[in-house]
Design goal:
65% of the residues lie in helices and 4% in strands. It contains seven helices and two strands, in the order αααββαααα. It has a two-stranded antiparallel ribbon with strand order 1-2. Helix 1 crosses helix 2, helix 5 packs antiparallel against helix 6 and helix 6 runs antiparallel to helix 7. It is globular and about 40 Å long. The chain starts with a helix and ends in a 6-residue tail after the last helix.
Length: 142
């Protein structure tokens, strides 16, 4: 899944299908599961193309489209086990007591920072840096 108009339209279609109870295909099911994690976006999807505009949601500035694409990317990494260290880190974090959605967001944050940094610099995504940062994740309870 990419950060493009086609992905945006697909997310909007899945949101409409979800709201109307229509069945979905495999990638659409992944998108739908992300949408289930973020009910705060439900009314935003009804805005169509305007849903890709960053806005304040629960006290944070977020672009629902970008957030959903990032979720789908990391979810896919977990589902296929590639890169393997993502699944290992996710399991480690949840075994340490981190809530599953929070663990996803921890990994997504690293991926997003590296992805957008490489985009701004017109460089290749730094997979080694991704691995190092993901492997360094730990859940601290206090």
């Amino acid at each position: 899944m990419d950060f493009d108009k086609e992905s945006q339209q697909r997310i909007l279609r899945v949101a409409a299908d979800k709201n109307e109870g229509r069945p979905t295909e495999e990638l659409d099911e992944r998108i739908a599961s992300v949408l289930e994690l973020h009910p705060e976006f439900d009314s935003i999807w009804e805005e169509g193309d305007l849903a890709s505009i960053p806005r304040e949601v629960n006290g944070m500035i977020v672009n629902p489209f970008v957030h959903t694409v990032l979720h789908v990317i990391v979810d896919r990494q977990l589902q296929v086990g590639n890169p393997e260290y993502v699944a290992i880190a996710y399991k480690r974090l949840t075994d340490q007591g981190m809530e599953a959605h929070e663990a996803l967001h921890a990994i997504i944050t690293i991926y997003a920072n590296l992805h957008f940094d490489s985009t701004r610099k017109s460089t290749q995504f730094d997979s080694l840096d991704y691995e190092i940062q993901v492997n360094a994740l730990a859940y601290k309870t206090e």
